[in-house]
Design goal:
Layout lengths: L5 E12 L18 E6 L6 E5 L16 E8 H8 L9 E8 L4 E2 L2 E2 L2 E9 L10 E10 L9 E11 L4 E4 L8 E6 L2 E14 L19 H16 L1 E9 L4 E8 L14
Antiparallel strand pairs: 1-4, 1-10, 2-3, 2-5, 5-8, 6-7, 9-10, 11-12, 12-13, 13-14, 14-15
């Protein structure tokens, strides 16, 4: 089957210009001395927060600037259809960005940042499953000032591009070694089988235990040290999974060993 249509919506190349006041207030901290940030929201997707670099007013944003990602949204066909639904508040879905001056976080339960302004970028996602589309690339005025020279300006790049993916789904719990189905819309097609198993890293030392059973007193300390290592090795467990095609031939495998975590009474040495 063909891959499922996905769209990657990216927000990047953020920058903020704030004109320097002729008589700045003493209580105001200029953004060049304190980092700014913004909150990026797309309808029902989780809110994303990122730092906004300050850009001197006299400088121009370079045209050949490499894309610096600030936020990414991965949209499935169902997500695109939901966003395309008309609302009484807006005919098109919008990407909403709130720009703040000051540091992120809160102090004594009060937010530290001060809202500078909000930006709304309309999105027309029709056809983005097959071709890229740039919704905005450049500066936009934010804040209460209406004059271009006196208002703060916010630079951003918002674009969408195709991101097709193959979607697979276990037909049951992975520990039960189920079949693996490829999903495309409402179609489910079996493509793989898998075998899941737990493993113990201490098992690999079982074959060498007989080599440490010499009665020589000069090696008793080595045997005790080896048994201690075996005990610690047994505490580290892991899992492995092998994927087979429908004919039974293995096509992929993966494994992981859980890291050692010291517990009360464990002896830990630094090498």
């Amino acid at each position: 089957m063909d891959p499922c249509p996905f769209v990657r919506l990216t927000v990047g190349n953020l920058a903020l210009k704030i004109p320097v006041a002729s008589k700045p207030a003493r209580s105001v901290v200029h953004p060049s001395l304190s980092p700014c940030f913004c909150k990026i929201k797309l309808k029902n997707f989780p809110l994303q927060t990122t730092v906004v670099p300050y850009f001197p007013p006299e400088n121009q944003f370079p045209d050949n600037q490499l894309q610096t990602l600030a936020a990414t949204f991965h949209l499935s066909k169902a997500d695109i259809d939901k966003l395309a639904q008309k609302s009484i508040f807006s005919a098109k879905p919008c990407l909403k960005i709130a720009v703040y001056t000051g540091r992120r976080g809160s102090t004594c339960g009060v937010n530290s940042g001060c809202l500078l302004g909000k930006v709304s970028v309309p999105l027309d996602l029709a056809g983005t499953e097959s071709k890229a589309c740039v919704f905005h690339n450049g500066w936009i005025s934010v804040g209460k000032e209406t004059k271009k020279d006196s208002s703060a300006r916010f630079h951003l790049n918002v674009k969408a591009e195709p991101d097709p993916r193959f979607v697979f789904q276990f037909d049951g719990e992975p520990e039960c070694s189920p079949q693996v189905f490829q999903i495309r819309g409402n179609i489910r097609q079996p493509v793989f089988t898998c075998k899941f198993s737990f493993r113990n890293t201490g098992d690999r030392n079982q074959g060498s235990r007989s080599l440490r059973s010499e009665p020589s007193s000069s090696r008793r300390w080595l045997s005790s040290f080896g048994s201690e290592r075996e005990r610690l090795g047994k505490e580290r467990k892991g899992w492995s999974i092998t994927v087979h095609d429908l004919s039974g031939s293995p096509v992929a495998a993966a494994s992981m060993v859980t890291p050692f975590v010291a517990s009360p009474g464990s002896r830990v040495s630094r090498f």
